[in-house]
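Here is one such protein, fold included:

. . .
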Amino acid sequence: MTRRRNFVGWVESARLWIVLASSIGCASASLSAEVWSDVSGRFTVRADYVGVEDGSVILKRADGSEVRVPIGKLSVASRDLATRLYEAQKAKKAQGLVDLIEMGAKQARLKREKARAESDPQYASTQLAAWHKRAVEDARDLPLLVDIQRPKASEILPLPTYPLGRTLEETMEYLGTQIRAGHPEVTIMMFPKEIHDAFADPRVIAEIGLAVDKYDVAIESIEEVLRGVTRLLVEQESFILNTPVFGSLSPELQQYLRSHVADAAELMYEITRLLESRHDLGSMSLWSFTHRHGLLIGAAARDLFHDLQEAVPGVPGLPSFDDAHVVQTSENEGTFQFRGIRTNGVVICVSGK
């Protein structure tokens, strides 16, 4: 009988603690929730902020039910609160992406150091060749702008094999030469295989796609401006060449640009196509996207700038690493300084690992 009485007492005590814990939890949730009010101030609700969707603030009551309130119906104070919470939520998501990338990079570095001897010594060469072949095919299949006639199509030059077993200085010389030849995408190979794999992770691709969607309105505005400039270059060349801005340029630069209007139009056209294709970043890796459009933009830029410095002294041409200062400190690492930008411990794929 005593044991039964003790057991019943223990059960009742447990029930009491559960009730108290639940009450404390509900009270804490209620205290942490915000008070929201409408424009008139007559209606209020205590609820947690969930997010913003389709012009409405999503709130969650203490009982778990959700309510959607149009932003325009909230009081000024509640709208300000929603704005602060939205910005904080956005910053947290952005930091989450940064943390994910940094974690992936750190894990990749540890993995590379541990498996250096087992890594494929031909990776840089074979991967670059494979990427280049696929990028050429993707660029060929990329839809044209429907409302603007394509001005011209610059030739995509063959890409030489990525150098293996070279010094850091020789590798940088190769990169500079290929940038001038219309292949800015080769700079991707400065990163080791593990970094490529990290950016090919479906989670990272999805996060980048979400980031593009978040700033879609701003990107679309830039696209429309570039689209307008491209249309003027293609359809109203004489108008561009007779504007006061063009007339203010030096005679040498005017002469050069008059003979390269089609090249300038193509460059603007390809940059516009890049922006128009931005949503592909939600389904393809950043590397593949960069490689595809790097081929097209690089070829157009090469034709526009290739002899600009000779024709117009003092005007900068395509960037290269000719004046870069590099000091190799180990097999794959070194100090890299270029036009005032200095980085230590840069990981360069010198040996292909």
In short: The chain has 13 helices and seven strands. The radius of gyration is 29 Å.
